[in-house]
Specification:
heterodimer; A: 283 residues; alpha/beta; Rossmann fold; five-stranded parallel beta sheet; two-stranded antiparallel sheet; B: 386 residues; 4 domains; 15 helices; 9 strands; 40% helix
Chain lengths: 283, 386
Amino acid sequence: MNVEEDRRAFSGASQYVLDNELAKIVNISMSLEMPLLLKGEPGTGKTMLAYAIAETLTMPLIVLNVKSSMKLIDTLYHYDTLTRLNDSRFGDSKRDVRNIENYIKMGKIGQSFVAKERTILLIDEIDKADTDFQDDMLDVLDQMEFDILEIDKTIKAKDRPVIIITSNAKKDLSDPFLGRCNFHHIAFPEPDMMREIVQVHFPNISQDLLEASVNTFYRLRGFNEVEKKPATRELINWVRALRADPDFKVKNLIKGDIPYLGILFKKSPDYAVAQKHASRFRL
Amino acid sequence: MGIPVSPTSFLRLQEALSKGLINSVDDFYISARSILVKSERYFDLFDQVFAHYFKGIELSDPSGVDLAEAARALLDSWLRDPQAIADALGIDEESLSKMSPEELINYFLERLKEQTEAHHGGSKWIGTGGTSPVGHSGYHPGGMRVGGRSRNKSAVKVAMDRRYRDYSQQILLTRHHMGEALKRLRNMVPSGPKDRVNIDESIYRTMRNGGEIEIIFDRSLRDRLKIILAIDNGGWSMDPYIDVIQSLFDYARSQFKDLKIFFFHNTIYDYLWADPQRRSKPHSVDEFIKIDPETRFIIVGDASMAPYEIMATDGSIHIEERSGRPSIERLQLLSRTFRHSAWLNPKPSDEWPYTRTVNVIRQIFPMFEITLDGLEKMVAHLMSKN
C-alpha cells in the first residue's frame, strides 16, 4: 500500500498512535498475548498501522505477505535441497553437506520465533489464503512452536512476538480463528482526516481544490448502488489528474462538473451510476 | 438478535480485568469490544448496549426504522430525483435545490413531527411497510456517514455516537463476493499431454538417485466439473430477486466451462427449458438420467407456490405437461440421479418455515440461502466426497 507508506515517510508514526483507542487495543492485546486482527476497507491504513506500532515500540518488524498459493510450511521454514544438492556435487562451499541444519532457512513466522529480541509479526491480508491455512497458522501461533521434520528439531519462540493480522475481506473469518484474536475495525477516514492525507501528498495544493475535491469525493462515495467505492488511493490519483489538467477549474467542480470519473470508478456499471448522479451535484 | 460471544472470550475479558489492565470505563469500552466482539457488524449493537447500560440510553427498536436512517434515505433519493421529493415535501424544486443537506433533513424532521397519524404502508418515503426503493435495508457498509470523528470523548459519549451504525447492516452480495464463494466449486483433474515439470517430485527422485538428475513431467490440471443450473424465471414471486440471480448467472457463465442452464416456472414437471421464454427448447426430465451423475445440479428458485402445484398429478399450469406425474416425483427423480445437488433459495432462511412447499422441497434437496454463508455451505456440500 504505497499511499500509506508515503504518508509515513512524510508525517511519521506519531500520527497514527495519536488514536487513543487503538493504542489501548494494542496494549491489551500485548498483555493478553493475543494476536490483533485489523479489518477495514482498502486504503484505511491497516498495514501502515503495524509499521507505526513497530516504530513506536522500537521493535523489529517482520512482514508476512500472505499469498493464495501459500502453504503453512512456507511461512515456517524451507529446506533448501537445491543448494545442498549443488554443494554435494560441486563441493565449492564451506557448508557441511552432512549437516542438514545448514540448509534449513527460516520463513517469516520462523524468523519471528528465533529472533534475538521480541519482534512484531505483521501477517498481511490473511483473507487471501484459504481457511485451513488460517486455522493451522493460528495453531502454530497459539503454541508458539513448530517442528522441523527434516532434522527432528522443535523450534520454540523465545519471546512471544506481537502479532498483527490484517484482512480486507468483507466476510468474517472462521469462528475458531476469530476466537483466538482480538478484533478491531478501522473505519474509513473522516473528511478532516482525508484532507490531511491529501495535503501530505500535495503539500502545495490550493485550499479551494482541496475542499472541493474532498467534498466531491465523499459525495461520490455516498452512492449506494456503487459496488466498488473509491478509496484513498483513487482520490490521490484523481487529485493528481485534476492538477495535471491545464483546462481544469475548481469552479467547475463546485458546479458539479466532474472530470475523470474513470479514475475513481473502475467498474463500468459503477461508472455509469456515478455519471448519472454526478450531473445532479451542487456543492 | 444479539452479539455472539464465546465463553473463552468472556474469560479473557475477566483475565484482562484481573490483570489490572482495565482502569476506567473508557478502558472497559475499548477492551470489551476488541475482546468480545469479533465483527464490525456488531459494533453498533455493542455501542447501543453499552450506552444503555452505563447511561440508560434507550435501546432502539430493532424492527423500527431509524429516524436518521430515514433521513439519509431521503437525502439519497433527493440526489436521485429532486422532482419527486419536492412534490413529497410540498416545496418547489427551485427552493429545494438551495437547501443544504442538513437544512433539508431538519425541514423534513420537523414536517415529521407535525404529522400526527401513523404513516405506514403506502407512503412514499418513510414508514415500515412501504414499497419505496430507498428503504431501510440495502445499505452498503461505509456509505454516507452521519456523526463525526470522535477524539477525547468519554466512552459512553463515543458509544452514544453510534459510529458503527453503517457497518451493522447485512452485506450485499456482489459479483466479487459471489466469485469468492463459488471459487472452490471446481474439480481439477489432470488431462492433456505431460508437459509440466513437477519440481518437487523431480528433486525427490533426483535425491533418491543420489544426485543423478531425473526430471518428472505431469499432465496439467483442468477443471472438469459439469454443472447444470436450473433457474425459476417465471412468475412475479421471483421478481425481487432478479438482480442477485442475474449476477449469479453472469458469474456462472463466465466461470464454468461445462455449464448448462435451464429454466422452469415454480417447480419442475415434465420439461426443463433451455430458452428463458420456456417455449421453444424443451428438454424432457426423463432424459436427464442419461447425463453424467457426477454433474452438480443446482436449482435456483424461491420454492414458494400453492401446495397442489407440487403434489397434484395435474399441478402444472401448462397444458402440455400432463404425464400424470406430480412435480414432487420429478424432483425426487432428479435428486436421485444427481447425488451432488442443491437448491438455492433467494428468500432469507428465516422465512422458509412459513411456506409449506419450501418444507416439502427441503426434504428432497438440501436448501441454501443466496448469501455468502449460504453459497459457501452449498459449495462445501456439492464438493463433498459422498
